[in-house]
Amino acid sequence: MTDYGAFATDPLFGLPLEELWFGLVFFILGMFLFLDGFDFGVGALFATRDDEDERETLLAAIGPFWDGNEVWLVVFGGALFAAFPAVYANLFSRHYLLMFAILGALILRGLAPEMYEQRHDEAWQTWWGRSFVVGSVSAPFFIGVFAAHWLLGISSLVSLPGVVVGLAVVALTIVAGVGFLGMKTRGALQRDVVEYGPKAMAAYLALVVVTLGYLVVLRPDLGVIAPIPLALVVITLVSAGGYLVTLREERYTLAFGTVPVLVFAFVALVAVLMFPMADPAVGLTVSDAIISILPLNIMSIAAALLLPLVFSYFGILYSTFRGPIETGESYS
Questions:
Q1: The pLDDT of residue 296 is above 50
Q2: Is 327 buried (19+), middle (13-18) or exposed (0-12) by CB count in 10 A?
Q3: C-alpha neighbours within 13 Å on the C-beta side of residue 126
Q4: Which residue, 54, 152, 177, 220, has most beta carbons within 10 Å?
Q5: Coiled coil located at which positions (predicted)?
Q6: Between the CA of residue 214 and those of 167, 266, 283, 328, what are the distances in Å?
Q7: Which fold has domain 15-319?
Q8: pTM above 0.85, yes or no
């Protein structure tokens, strides 16, 4: 029998791997909500455009990115399954229908623009244009419901806090979409789209306030009134102010730069309020749910090697397709 020694009994380099992997799972979720979030936002804003050229510009803006961005959701599921298999099994079995709703929305969002480009008669494009909007709005909504239910240990398909958080995530994706299109578009289209930014931000902040009020009154055990959650709320407010100021000053790259701060503050708040629980619905803690030391050490080495490669790929992708969409560019 192979003797792995301390590698099988002690965490790698003495690191707190349980906490690091819990944080990594939520970091990956944050990457998905940030990168695919602006795609969802563009899809929602697609509903505001009637001009065919403007719709093509919106599709062209996300064309090179959306399928790569979606990979982060797969990585999230894989990391959760690999590090916390019991949590993965509990969540996906308890929220079986919700998982299928998320997958269905993502499929619709991905299929719709492809079908939209296949024919150019009005009825066909109207149908698939609406399907693109529905998929782009419903996917972040269901993901928000999932996040709320995970945190609060809710097993039902629908709940009031789930709906509120779902709407908050939709508003946040529109905030991201406006920032992204501010960089990728020009002229009248840019001016029209940017007007939705303050409205979406106001909706997001209002929904966050409602959510926090609910948690303070009905779930004081989560410790919302604590230094770290309050610091994350302050970061959210400061970032929201920066977004609105830079949007008004037409500094769209800076406006978009506030989006990851908003997204990761939201995800971090969920993680902080949940910890040390990994699955509050069944009382499963991070320490109880984590896999044994040997595979955890091996996975940690693999993650340390692979994540820089993933970030390099996305760096090349976004640098290659940087800059605004030029006249005549299309999704296909």
A1: yes
A2: exposed
A3: 3
A4: 177
A5: none
A6: 15, 16, 21, 49
A7: Formate dehydrogenase/DMSO reductase fold (1.20.1630)
A8: yes
